[in-house]
Every structure is written in C-alpha cells, then in structure tokens.
Amino acid sequence: MKPALLLVDLQNDYLCAERLEPAAGEIVARAAALLDLWRRAGAPVVHVWTTVSREADRRMPHWVRAERWICVEGTEGHATPLALRRHAAERVVHKTFFSGFGTGELERLLRTAGCDAVVIAGVHEHGCVRATALDAYQAGFAVWIAEDAIGSDDPLHAAVTRRYLGARAIRYAPVEAIARSLRPASTPSASRRIARLASWIGGREAPGDRDALLVHASPVSGEPVWEMSEAGPEEVARAARDAARAQASWESAPLATRVAVIERLAALLGEQGEGVAVQMASEIGKPIAQGRAELARTGALVRAALQRAADPLEIPCGKHSQARYRPLGTLA
Asked: Where are the beta strands (DSSP E) in the chain?
C-alpha cells in the first residue's frame, strides 16, 4: 500500500468558527504533527481547500441563500495556519462543495502517485471529512481518519458520523498510533518509513513493531515531549507478576506504615503541585488553573481515604450477615 495524507479544509475561516470541538489550536497541532510525519516519510500530501471566488461565484446554494462569504481566494481566511502551510512540492485540490473528490482532480492525483490508501485530517467531521472519506471509500481506497486531528462544530452529528463511517470499514486512529508505525527505535530511511506506514495501514504488523516507540506530542507546539518503548506481552506479564508480589508485601505491612506512605503522597501533591500543573499544561494542554484545582482535589480525596483507613471492612447486611469488600488485585 501507498498511503497519501489528505488535509481537508484546515483553513482559518473554518478553524475560527464558533463551537468548534476540539479547539482549533489542538486540531492544528495534531494535524501538524501528522504532516511532519508524512514529510519525513516522503509520503504524498494533498491539501484540500474550499475556494470561493467573487468573480466566478460557485458557492453552494445554501451559502448563497445565507449570503455567506468565507474561504474567499486571496483572503487570510482562505489561508491555512503557518504550521500547515504547504511545501512547494505538495499539491492543492480546490473545491466548492463538500467532498475533495467532487471534481475528479483528487482521484487523478492519487492514481498518478500510485496511492491506494488515504489518511484524512481536517474539518468538519460531519461534513467535508465525511463526504471525502465516503467518496474515497467508493473509489476503492483504504480509508483512515486521524481521530484527534479532526474537528466539528456539531459534536452530536460528528459522533453519529463516526459510528456511521466505522460501520463501513473506514477506520479511526489517533496520530500517536500512526506515529508508532513510523518511529522504530532505530530511525529508518524515508523509503523504509513509507513501507512501515503502508504495512500499518494495511493492517499487517510492520517489521520492528516490537521495537516501536510510544511518542506523545505537545498539543501546544506539536513537538514530541516524551517517548517510551512499547511493551509486548512478555513485558506486561512480568510487570503484573512484580506488582502482585509488591501487593502481598504491602498488605502485610502494619496499618500505620501504609498510612504514613499515603500521607507522604498527599504531601507531595501539595509540595509539587505547581510544577505538575505546569507540566500538564505543556503535555496535554490543560489550563494551569484547572491543573491546580485537579491536584488540590486529588490531595483532598487521598486525605479523605486516610481518615477512613481504620474503619471496619465489614458492613452489616442483616441480622446474621455481613459483607466485606476485597480489592480486585493486579490487572494488566
């Protein structure tokens, strides 16, 4: 397989729309990370833009009725954010209706490039993304949608769309899952990257997947902020065994010892809370004020649990019966 990346309607007029979910900055950051992956893999990229001209008015009829003029050629609203500006070698397909395949140009480009699969990012999921995905599917392409690099101003309609498309062999995956198919522990050549990506898109295990890295990119900058090796079944089983042994040691420790450990955890949440809140803002885009509140709430819940540490475990359920809750134990 040879997959192409389609960036659909990632233009300022659409991204500045009210009620867009997730926020435009998050969509742009994830799409930019995806675009960077494609460029480094040497894979085809096509920018699909809505383009309206006042000289030759081919707007959709409902836009005409609403006197709606957006994505007008030559305006800032027609342009993309800086992080998504196209390179000279990347093609642009212009459209005035929903689907990027509407004029036939996109399919011709993909066929000429030898592509038989597409990964789609953009807006809106319930409109142009959906129409483009369905037309790609009808044309015989394998279709993936980068689920965290798409947005919609109608979340309910978007949720229905996801269910509808998923039932028709159009698959969703986060950008990080796509990144894992391109980032083995040893950096491959561009040709090997595209081979790995094609293998992943095709649903087959790519060579070296056991050595793949889990890469998390910042929603603020789009840059990777941490990476770790992906664990296989043996590593998971070993970790579960180690945790089970640790659990036995923990259960046998005196109550006062266990309370002291948890009290220290609660204290650390207070002492290091500001730094953790800043890190949350960087790594997942959470506003710092919300991070502080979350950490304060976590500390309060830990202390509330400590206050009940000595409570009896048995709960009377009747005159002659009691119930006792037992921890489920280690899960992996």
From this structure: 3-8, 45-50, 91-95, 117-123, 142-151, 171-173, 213-217, 224-229, 314-316, 322-324
